[in-house]
Amino acid sequence: MLERLLVTGAAGGIGTLLRHKLKPLAKTLRLSDVADLGHAGENEEIVPCDLADRRAVRQLVEGCDGILHLGGISLEKSFDTLLGPNIVGVYNLYEAARACGSPRILFASSNHVTGFHEQNTLLTADAKLRPDGLYGVTKCFGEAMARMYHDKFGQETAIVRIGWCAEEAQDHRKLSIWMSPDDFLSLVTCVFTVSRLGCPVIYGVSNNDTIWWDNSAVSYLGWHPKDNAAKFRDKIDAAMPRPPRDACDAVYQGGKFTIEPIH
Amino acid sequence: MLERLLVTGAAGGIGTLLRHKLKPLAKTLRLSDVADLGHAGENEEIVPCDLADRRAVRQLVEGCDGILHLGGISLEKSFDTLLGPNIVGVYNLYEAARACGSPRILFASSNHVTGFHEQNTLLTADAKLRPDGLYGVTKCFGEAMARMYHDKFGQETAIVRIGWCAEEAQDHRKLSIWMSPDDFLSLVTCVFTVSRLGCPVIYGVSNNDTIWWDNSAVSYLGWHPKDNAAKFRDKIDAAMPRPPRDACDAVYQGGKFTIEPIH
Amino acid sequence: MLERLLVTGAAGGIGTLLRHKLKPLAKTLRLSDVADLGHAGENEEIVPCDLADRRAVRQLVEGCDGILHLGGISLEKSFDTLLGPNIVGVYNLYEAARACGSPRILFASSNHVTGFHEQNTLLTADAKLRPDGLYGVTKCFGEAMARMYHDKFGQETAIVRIGWCAEEAQDHRKLSIWMSPDDFLSLVTCVFTVSRLGCPVIYGVSNNDTIWWDNSAVSYLGWHPKDNAAKFRDKIDAAMPRPPRDACDAVYQGGKFTIEPIH
Amino acid sequence: MLERLLVTGAAGGIGTLLRHKLKPLAKTLRLSDVADLGHAGENEEIVPCDLADRRAVRQLVEGCDGILHLGGISLEKSFDTLLGPNIVGVYNLYEAARACGSPRILFASSNHVTGFHEQNTLLTADAKLRPDGLYGVTKCFGEAMARMYHDKFGQETAIVRIGWCAEEAQDHRKLSIWMSPDDFLSLVTCVFTVSRLGCPVIYGVSNNDTIWWDNSAVSYLGWHPKDNAAKFRDKIDAAMPRPPRDACDAVYQGGKFTIEPIH
Amino acid sequence: MLERLLVTGAAGGIGTLLRHKLKPLAKTLRLSDVADLGHAGENEEIVPCDLADRRAVRQLVEGCDGILHLGGISLEKSFDTLLGPNIVGVYNLYEAARACGSPRILFASSNHVTGFHEQNTLLTADAKLRPDGLYGVTKCFGEAMARMYHDKFGQETAIVRIGWCAEEAQDHRKLSIWMSPDDFLSLVTCVFTVSRLGCPVIYGVSNNDTIWWDNSAVSYLGWHPKDNAAKFRDKIDAAMPRPPRDACDAVYQGGKFTIEPIH
Amino acid sequence: MLERLLVTGAAGGIGTLLRHKLKPLAKTLRLSDVADLGHAGENEEIVPCDLADRRAVRQLVEGCDGILHLGGISLEKSFDTLLGPNIVGVYNLYEAARACGSPRILFASSNHVTGFHEQNTLLTADAKLRPDGLYGVTKCFGEAMARMYHDKFGQETAIVRIGWCAEEAQDHRKLSIWMSPDDFLSLVTCVFTVSRLGCPVIYGVSNNDTIWWDNSAVSYLGWHPKDNAAKFRDKIDAAMPRPPRDACDAVYQGGKFTIEPIH
């Protein structure tokens, strides 16, 4: 059990889903975001912080022995919007961690670092980086930063390429990339309890019927996701047609991100 | 759901097993063979056709939006016997499909395209072609044809290297290659419902205890065979001795096909 | 069912665990060791033997149609201690087998032939040999001997790199390498009943939550271990702290063997 | 030195280039084609033959201890045109060889069996088959036939995927695929003099500056092509513009074959 | 021949070495830097530009049909120093290129994106990214940007992981990573004259005796470096001792960069 | 330059060939063997030693900063003959080296550790061990010992799988495996002068026309063999017939060793 687990981006979608589930992992949860986090619950600390503010990030990390880094932008946005949280912010976080005893980090990367791979390709952790937009490029940057701090300073990071973490899968593509909050929780637990983590790349996805990603390289973690997006298939089929075979949502793992404009 | 699914070779072993099971997949089943197919049932059309007859095949394919190509010879036979249905017939089918809007095809290939691999080798879709007879060579031809029509015209085909599809496994080798009719049905369903198929190679085999083939490259299809030939093991053990270790049935994946004469 | 299964090292840890379980595999169990084996039970023969004694080994193997070779030293010991049983003894065993009709052999190799691989690496049968001590080096010798007798004389051997076979896993590393006696028994059964064995490398480990080894290359054997060391996790967590991340028990697959002195 | 080397397709482009160069390889050259071969020179035999005529092929092969199989169509043609020489003819040749002591065969396959790979991909002998037309599909058939006769009957064949064998490279794509007649001759010599050939796939190409194919898997043959198409670059640059980057001649290894119609 | 080749970072080390050599490649060289470039020579344009200034970069790229992007910081520096030229600057460059018809780009990446690989490891283009400092991380970012613009917009880039480009190799590590200016020039020529470039990763290194990098994946480019750092070995041996085996200069490909502090 | 290079097996075939060539590598050559070495030349020390004598080996190694370990049996012999020099002797040598500051070792392994691979297979350092006799098995043991001392104690060893080192190649198989004494000398020089050696596997073979082994994994050593056995081909062709295709000398890399009896 951790003493104090920092959760950045705690007001975001995933942060909100996990906030209560994470309690058993640490004596104190330090929740941080630029958005409002409401009142601190039991064993919670609320520490607002702009990731681009180096000094603030340094204080944020102080005293934590684990970091769940969900912070930053997780959508395709303009470069100027991404630069602060996803580029500068990642550097700030790793420097702060280095100054504070190198607490283990789970870095929320994204399937969009490999979004231009086709859906009929099974990716392993060694898959070539093929980001599908500026957001994906910033996550490639973050992965490279994590790796460098590992090789240079021994900083451990679980690089988790999250598919789509939500209560439900809402379209056909998400049937393959959905990760239930409970499965993410069990992954977080594995990451913070394994004796030696290293700096692995992990695809964050449930045990869905249709699979694009192979996590066998990290079977040492003992993570066995239990949920399966197949239970949403009928509802999705009823709500919308399957994408035609040449639609980006059927061709590329990154789906519509591959056609988002750059600006 | 398809409008009209063409089933070639519908009077053969597999065709007969699947005829009734396929009904939910299409509004109309168009059943074809050179052998007698009996009376057309509800939602069935019977269209006799010699695959070597180009014009007839063209008419056969017209109006279908899916093709389950079980037709052709599926045993080691003389070259002259195989030439019409398995060589000329495959060309005729693909040309007809091209003229008719390129309906998706499931091509019944065979484990005999890789039959000279040893049984203690796990094959993936990339395995070297090692056909075990003329029949296997014609199936290599068919696979090459499918791939070419995919690259050149976008024709989608599921190349299914069928092990042994029957109600039962009847000898020791078949314990490893058996595919239940229900598992084949679920594969057919996956093939015709996935948004984007491409032109994958799939080993057609149930979830048997002993496995020679690795389908992880097509996990995007979401096919999870459920049956297991292990249930036939005791009956087979009682009925016949295990093959000795140097018998073709114990050495090669293709079993006795590897010692069939050529003529 | 075998006529007579020779079990060497039958008085050792694994031999003792399996002695009664092995009965269904053979009409007669020939149990051998340098240590006391007690009285022969029903269908048992007790044949004391020093593996370094060529003539004795020759007599020991005579009349057996299967060999479970658990004999030899299975701990890091001085070179002079290992030389007789693990080097000379292995040669004696294979020569005896060659003289006696080449009965199939299960050779108890060890995870210590690859003990210097890190725990966050998934090994296949092709993994580079990285022995973690003299014991591991002698097992590399045994594996090479097995392979040579296979290529040269057709001798079949299952090279089983045993993790930790015991009733219980007693520390954190063993949660990943534990093999239950029942799972070992089912492996022995597969090895002696498959029609054609060849000379495969198999990792001897149960179906644990945390996995370092990939046995998919031998899925033709149909071995499906059922037990899972995860059931011991709480007890271990209660009994001792997790090893720190830089301890040999957390870094290397071979654990403490990697720091045993050489003498 | 061979007793009698059969050269099929001897009146074709490559056959004509090699006719005189081949003399040192055999005491007698048996030249065959459906087209006129002129008068037999010294140590030459002229044997006209239609490859689709089984009986004629059987007589053609009789008495030969080596076969250079250049025969058949080597352009994209209609299926009906290709069927006789490239499908039936190949079967006839292999059956005749089997009846006549299995003389070693060099089978002229083609880069068009892999023509849909992109030019910026380095292919090895294991490259996936991606034929670029019916011609390429028939060559896939021939390769499969060669492999089957090897596995089943020990027939040795050098499968040579010829790029473009001519005195000169005449366009930009050919700078990468050109094989000089002298380099082909040295390959033929290696194939017929190595003690054990097996059934290798060899890319038939000179030592050009720009390379798409990797022959290191057959370095046991000792073939070291000496010529380099780079010497033609200036002439080609002067004669025509480089193809634009999206032209089939710049994208695909098969060049214009990829856009040839099927009929 | 290009109409106008933009050279960024033209006042830097490599830019200075190549300035005169590049003349035959383009009718006009547009030289740019934040540092002084002296007077424009014949067929030269001098356009000072700060890469972090989006509007200026847009004007800089206008009218160019090729870009040799040497600009940015090429040493380990503070994050704040690198951010403008190596992160913002790369985005600015690719956006400008997209607005200006996507002229082909040679992006000067660095061996420091893989600097934590050991010197006794042969890297291919697929090697895992292991940057050795912040500089290396920014180059990983640039490579990801190049790849994304390729997949999304068809922008072609040669990603050249430069070893050490200078007139001379001055220490033992550089004997393996040295690239002569002439060899770089021939690479630039290949990159801008090949019909189809794609987005390859190329290691920028001469034909040295000791090699850490394998460029066979880009043999389609026809680049054959001619120089060999071995000619500097005696001079280096005379000037300094070989690094001891555990010095970073002997262990890691990135040499001293691996021990540079982060700030 | 080394202070004192120990050469074991100095009276053997290779030792005799290299004795004078090695002088420039070390101030003193310490030559050792059980056979007579004649008088010590300038800068030579003669130290007779039985490798199986632990104490003697300890004294032999004392004071040396490099070891060329040619000692031991290099032919297929009885197990009892091999046991002392090739098993016990290797252990003695590594223990002595550990006690004496871990001088770098070149261990003369053999192509017979992979002798059961076929001649038409290109082996890399990762090739599966397939020893062709007891001699090969003992060399597998030595390679495992070298690797263990590297992983455990940092001992550096060049594992050189020597083909056939002699003034001349005398039969057809040796055309592929011959290593000239000069090429071996240049390898020895590379091994003892590279800053960091590690524990690589190197195939000891000249730059022959026909090649079975790929040394690209050790290109960091900068070894470029210059000689080519092709110059002996005519003489060999004149002296003896090529082996028939199914002779062990044509099938297996290990040649006749594969049919040597075991005793």
UniProtKB/TrEMBL annotation, chains A, B, C, D, E, F:
Q: Which UniProt keywords apply?
A: Carbohydrate metabolism, NADP
Q: Which SUPFAM superfamilies match?
A: NAD(P)-binding Rossmann-fold domains
Q: Which residues form the NAD-dependent epimerase/dehydratase domain?
A: 6-162
Q: What superkingdom does the record give? A: Bacteria
PANTHER family named among the record's database cross-references: ADP-L-GLYCERO-D-MANNO-HEPTOSE-6-EPIMERASE (PTHR43103:SF3), NUCLEOSIDE-DIPHOSPHATE-SUGAR EPIMERASE (PTHR43103)
Q: What is the official name of this protein in its record?
A: NAD(P)-dependent oxidoreductase
**Species this chain originates from:** Jiella pelagia
